[in-house]
Amino acid sequence: MLGTDCCTLLPNSIPRTNCTLEQLFTPIPTRYIRVKKNSWGGWWISNLRTQSGSNHRTAFKTKNSSSGRMRPPTSQPTLRLSGILFKYGTKSAQVAFRTGDFKQQVIFIGGLTDGLLATEYLQPLSMALEAEKWSLVQPLLSSSYSGYGTSSLKQDALELDQLISYLINKEDSEGVVLLGHSTGCQDIVHYMRSNTACSKAVRAAILQAPVSDREYRATLPETADMIDLAASMIKEDKAMDLMPREANPDAPITAYRYYSLCAYMGDDDMFSSDLSDDQLRQRLGHMSNIPCQVIFSMGDEYVPTYVDKRSLVQSFVSLRQDYVIQICIPILW
């Protein structure tokens, strides 16, 4: 249904916060389970395949950011990248960091609370991309860091379009690939639905650790009451007013954004396990227009235990039988 050329399921022992790029971005060994043959002619980012057919394989551990969800603090290694910091829009937050000076770019879009160097895999990914003549671009959006609560998918899409326009007009970009992490996956889905002129420059999309914020937040005791409060505020034309602090302790959040993230069929509700095939098609069907890879951890700690993760991911790719889908299950060794 997504038109995906590969859907990768990482084993239970690998949560979203601890996986290797080798498990994410390498060719499929014979030990992997192959469901159907890939029709696209190769994984775009899984083996960093270039037009010449060369591969670049790297292995390293990753630890992703909290994506707006509470987590015990962890020690972080020093991450260093050398590149160019540039402005792509007029707002103070609209800056981006680029490593590599090439005509093709991978744009990383982080999740809730993310900003620059949001995940540890960005450093080695930047090195691997540079070897293949691709740049890595990490933009800051108005929603970055604690700004997500007063922003929206629509605003993110507008700023992402500004960034791509800048890359085309100022950097002579020959095409981009969008790499979303966590809630950043929703940004990509929303942006590709916008069908703007600049979206035609998107050559492929990668959804890494897509998650239902609604299903995760439903496990928190205060959520049900806060959804009711947000709904009533929206009805009273107070959608952009702030919710009480207890609704979202880590950042101010408007009634609209809270409802979008937490309510059934809110604007951010794209990857929930209880959505019907028709609802998934409505939300994700347009992603079949470009090559799209889903990377989903079977040990994702932000997916409730009652969710059948394998069936959930299969539902993302099985609604459209006219696209040849490949599902591979990495094996630890």
Structure description:
The protein is of the alpha/beta class and 333 residues long. The chain is 26% helix and 15% strand. The strands form 2 sheets. The chain has a 9-stranded mixed beta sheet with strand order 4-5-7-6-8-9-10-1-11. A hairpin with a 7-residue loop joins strand 4 and strand 5. It is globular, with a radius of gyration of 19 Å. It starts with 5 loop residues before the first strand and ends in a 5-residue tail after the last strand. The N terminus and C terminus are likely disordered.
Provide the descriptors you would attach to this structure in a database record.
11 strands; nine-stranded mixed β-sheet; 333 residues; disordered C terminus; alpha/beta; two-stranded antiparallel sheet; 15% strand
User: How many beta-strand segments?
Assistant: 11
How far apart the termini lie comes to 31 Å
Sheet having the most strands: 9 strands, mixed
Helical segment tally?
9
Low-confidence residue ranges: 1-5, 23-74, 320-333
Strand order of the largest sheet: 4-5-7-6-8-9-10-1-11
The amount of helix comes to: 25-40%
Q: Describe the global form.
A: globular
What is the residue-averaged pLDDT?
Answer: 79
What is Rg?
Answer: 19 Å
Provide the β-strand percentage band: 5-15%
H/E element sequence: EEHEEEEHEHEHEHHHHEHE
